[in-house]
Every structure is written in C-alpha cells, then in structure tokens.
Amino acid sequence: YFLIFTVMRLTKPTLFTNILVTCEERDLPGILFNQLMKDDPSTVKGAETLMLGEMLTLPQNFGNIFLGETFSSYISVHNDSNQVVKDILVKADLQTSSQRLNLSASSAAVAELKPDCCIDDVIHHEVKEIGTHILVCAVSYTTQTGEKMYFRKFFKFQVLKPLDVKTKFYNAETDEVFLEAQIQNITTSPMFMEKVSLEPSMMYSVAELNTVDRAGQSESTFGSRTYLQPMDTRQYLYCLKPKQEFAEKAGVIKGVTVIGKLDIVWKTNLGERGRLQTSQLQRMAPGYGDVRLSLETIPDTVNLEEPFDITCKITNCSERTMDLVLEMCNTNSIHWCGVSGRQLGKLHPSSSLHLALTLLSSVQGLQSVSGLRLTDTFLKRTYEYDDVAQVCVVSSEVKQS
Fold it and tell me: What percent of the chain clears pLDDT 70, i.e. is strictly above it?
C-alpha cells in the first residue's frame, strides 16, 4: 500500500494522580520522602499528600463510551511512498446492530496527495444505541500507473449504559398523576446532573417537585452541588395535571396511558456532556368503573359534633346515560345531614355534576368519610363509596386554643 491509515479517538485529558510515599519523621528516612513530594512538580503546593495533582495527562487507552455521549475520532491518511497518488477518497461509516451511518465530513475525492503529506478529518457522532459499534474506515485511490487501490480497516468498541432509570406512578383521585423517577449512576466516575426534566404528553402540564422555597428563593432539594457518585441513586418527583380542555372529559383522561418522557443531561470529568431521553413513559390506566366519585373540597380540621360542608364531584365514566339516586348511610362516627334517597337526575356519558353535602362527626380523631351510595335506576345497580377521604375531628376547645 502507498497510504497509511491512522485512527485515534479524541477524548478529554484527565488530572494526573501521583503515588504517595511518606513516613513519620522519627522513621529511618526522616523527612526525605516528604521533601521529595514537595519538590515533585506534579503535586499541589501546600497539599502534597493529596493524590490529585495540578497537571493533565493524556488518555492512555481507548476508554469507555457511554450511551448519550458524543464519540469523536481523528482520522489521518498519510502518503508513505515517494510517489504522488490521485483521486483519494476517504470514507468513515459507523455500523451498529440496527443501522449503518456515514460520518465522513465530505464525500468529495482529493485530487492528489504528494509524498509525506496527509489528509485529516475529525468525525463526531452522538451515540444513541447500546452494544457493539464498528467504525469502518475505507480508502480508495489511484497510483501513478493508473492502478486503482482500495483497503478498509475496522475498529470495534462497546457502548455502555451510563444510567439506570426506574419509574413509579401514583394516580391521585383528582386526576393528577405523580411520577417518581429513580436515577442511578452505574458508571465508575461522578456525574454532574445538569438537568433532569419531564416533557409531558399533550394532555398534561407538569410541575417539578424537586425544589424548596427558602427566603423567597427556590433551591434544589439535592443541594447546590448536584453530583451523583458512582452507584448512587437519586429520586426526582413530578406532578402532572390534565390540561383544562381535557380535564372535563372523563372518558379521555381515564384511558390516557402515555405520560411523557424524561430528558437527562449530565457532565463528567472535564465537562464532557451526555444526554439521554427516555422513551414514552406509560402508566397503568386507573379503573374508575362506571361512576367516579371524588371530593373537590373538604376541611382539614373540624369541630366535634358541629356540621361541616364538603363538595363531591360525580362523573359518568360509562358510555350510557344514568339516572342516579343518592343515599347517605351513617357510620359509627360520621352522621349525614340532609335527605337520603334524593334524585340527582340524568347524567350523560363523560358528564359531571357537583354536589354540596353536610355532615358531622361524633368521635374525635382522624375519621373516614364513608357511607355514600349511588344507585342507577336504569340498571338497578348500586355503587358504594367508603373511605372517600379523612378529616381530623377535634373538640371546639382544642381548635379555639
């Protein structure tokens, strides 16, 4: 071959770490070892016993490549002969398990390459697949005698998974969805978590619950330095609420399983950036049955044996019209005020009605609101609602004090 092909991965340098050799002054070497450390140009002056030095060192091996990072490589073709070669075409492809990508900056051929000259190229690719990757570098050229030459080189490397992401969903009675995302650093080096956000689906708006309000300023619950050490796990919490145009459509919200996707951005070592975006997160759709009853308003604390008001929302989640009758059954502690067995009228599919009710408690403590019954007169079917909510009952003297 007339040409020599060289491929090198471009990575950031690392901080030099020195080997500590020290002893007490009463030992045989005395202060010799300590003095050698102070004279070592790679140590930090005044902190010679720290292994981390002030100098940078170039990578000594290929290193690890993680999903979401940018793979950069330097490609050089050198004319090692004493002849001029013509029509040099350099091509770099990245072969994965599912596709083949062309990474060459230019597809045009170089007219000629003189002896001891070279053609350089730098390629970049954001890694989006886990597993085996093969960098296929091909060179074609023509000699002075008109002979067409061609050769290829293969460079194989593995792409590893940097983060382990687990999600948990909680479907609230108010159509809100709470998402807990557990993110674990499964690499061997610390990460600076630059951003962890949730991009909701079109039917939801999201509120991040990962900050606290201190002195009028919003601070992260993880502190000012959001480093994630190797094998450490961090929990992020989000609250999703259905948008107003979808909130009244009970049947639509009930069947929504796609919530959104997480967008994670981090930095490692000397600012090397990585980014991952999960696939669409899906929850188990809540089963409300044909009729859903939820509490819109209820006081936190009430007086013993004093009436208080609550507001209920009744939603027809079925595909048929219902004719509902409301019954209120007393329990050992909860007593309903009003007429039981009253007609609520017809309720069309995906429609809702708000109902104001009055009750009182004869027992102190945390009491459960129970004893509501809805009967559909069309199908003669009764729906029971117990433990709808809890209310704290105290004596009037305790509340006033």
Answer: 92
What average pLDDT does the structure give for the chain? 85
d(CA 220, CA 197): 13
For residue 122, is it within any domain? yes
CA angle, 113 then 116 then 121, to 5°:
60
For residue 313, the enclosing domain spans 291-394
Domain count, the chain: 3
Strand 389-394 relative to strand 191-200, pairing: unpaired
Q: Do 151 and 173 have their domain in common?
A: no
Determine, yes or no, domain membership for 400: no
- Residues 206, 122 share a domain: no
The H helix count followed by the E strand count for the chain is 4, 33
Q: Are residues 28 and 12 in the same domain?
A: yes
Distance CA 65, CA 73 (A): 12
Q: Are residues 134 and 9 in the same domain?
A: yes
- Answer yes or no: is pLDDT of 325 > 80: yes
The helix (run of H) or strand (run of E) holding residue 211 is: strand 211-214
Residue 382 CB contacts under 8 Å (≥ 6 apart), including other chains? 373, 374, 375, 376
Reduced DSSP (H G I as helix, E B as strand, rest coil) percent helix, strand, coil of the chain, to 5: 5, 55, 40
pLDDT tens per residue across span 293-324: 888 889 989 999 899 999 998 888 788 899 99
pTM of the model: 0.67
